[in-house]
Amino acid sequence: MLIVGLGNPGPAYAGNRHNIGFMVIDELIRRNSAQKLSSSSFNGELFKFSNHFLLKPLTYMNLSGNSILAVKKFYKVDEVVVIHDDLDLPFGTLRFKHGGGHGGHNGLKSTDQMISRDYARVRLGIGKPEHKGEVASHVLSDFSKTETEHLKTWISYTCEAVESMLENSLEDVSSKYTIKKFQLK
Question: Where is this site: Stabilizes the basic form of H active site to accept a proton (predicted)?
């Protein structure tokens, strides 16, 4: 299985809402003592544990699919899971689905173009900005102080769900780990 976290490379983006996929991958790397694989041809940071791969595309969000396709082809991986931020879900929610539209998410749009829509998605809600014209600044802004207090728990829980996907069906994982409403305190 290839597990991909979407985000943008570099310290300027590290705490951005758009980088929640990278944050989950970083924690999965730590939890599973994943070993870094060296290859510049993947345009991403690639790690391996057991027979599974963890990928952080370094192509910037809009070209994420290029990195995913390169790893998928080289290692002949059939199953792909993409972890990403989702504007249509409130902060702290966690949903799972197979396929579907990209909803304007450029990382998903690129992935769909390169490998089709035939992959599982782990959707982490980041909430919508008040005005539609603020979408770009919203996804590229850091989490609020209150949100940041909950990030570690949310990311850890998401990692548990992703690890469960290695041995269980998407439906089983979804029924056990979905968070429909998250209460900020």
Answer: 85
